[in-house]
Amino acid sequence: VSANDEKRLAAEAAAGLVEAGMAVGLGTGTTVGHFLPALAARGLPIRCVATSPHTEAAAREVGLEVEPFDALDRLDLAIDGADQVTRDGWLVKGGGGAHTREKIVAAAAGRFVVIVSSEKVVGRLTPPVPLELHAFGLQATLRALGGTRLRDVPPTPDGGVVADYAGAVGDPAALAARLDAEPGVVSHGLFPPALVSFVLVGRGDRVDRVDVA
Ligand code: 5RP
């Protein structure tokens, strides 16, 4: 079974969590790419917001209605992938550079469910940690952070610069606090366990549920 098959299995299981009337946050990435058609196939009356222009377009393509995330003040459920997941529920996200909107959507959701293939589950988090940086003062922010390289991608929809922190992760809570304290950092890809409800891990031909918060 390939990682792609495991992603699809986890995504299909997540589609089963959605109920009529829910407001649902749609993550970004190839795993979410499996989730969107599985959700659309259920034909439920739901409201959706997307974490990236790419997801918004892909969701519309399969027939999901997506609205801007400015009128809804909370979501029932958000579903998203991750680059790394520890057993205690720390995530590294932002492989697609969408982590700022992903974190806002996750935090607004009553339940945030992560969908991954089994190779994403790690004993400890390793670099790089994706960052979104303010363009203003960029060189000063890079100097203060150290060990950070810019990613050769367009600015985010919010005008930020995507970069990767390549230093050691160590204690993720300590690194998250350090990154949060840097004024030029818009957001970082470390998502704490408190944000995560549970993780659906595609493993071979089954899906394991790892409860977190
Ligand atoms: C995008 C993300 C993705 O969820 C993460 O990169 C996983 O991607 P994929 O589902 O393609 O493996 O955080 O910013």
Q: What does the average pLDDT come to?
A: 97
Trace the largest sheet across and list its strands: 2-1-3-6-13-14
Biggest beta sheet attributes:
6 strands, mixed
User: What kind of oligomer do you see?
Assistant: single chain
The helix/strand class is alpha/beta
How helical, in percent, are the residues?
A: 25-40%
Low-confidence stretches: none
**Bound ligands, each once:** ribulose-5-phosphate
Classify the beta-strand content into a percent band: 25-35%
Number of strands: 14
What tags apply to this protein structure?
single chain, 213 residues, alpha/beta, 6 helices, 14 strands, 29% helix
Characterise the protein shown here:
It is a single chain. Helices cover 29% and strands 29% of the residues. It contains six helices and 14 strands. Strands 2-1-3-6-13-14 form a six-stranded mixed beta sheet. The chain has a four-stranded mixed beta sheet with strand order 7-4-5-12, with helices on one face. A four-stranded antiparallel beta sheet has the order 9-10-8-11. Helix 1 runs parallel beside helix 2. Bound molecules: ribulose-5-phosphate (5RP). Ribulose-5-phosphate (5RP) binds next to helix 2 and helix 4.
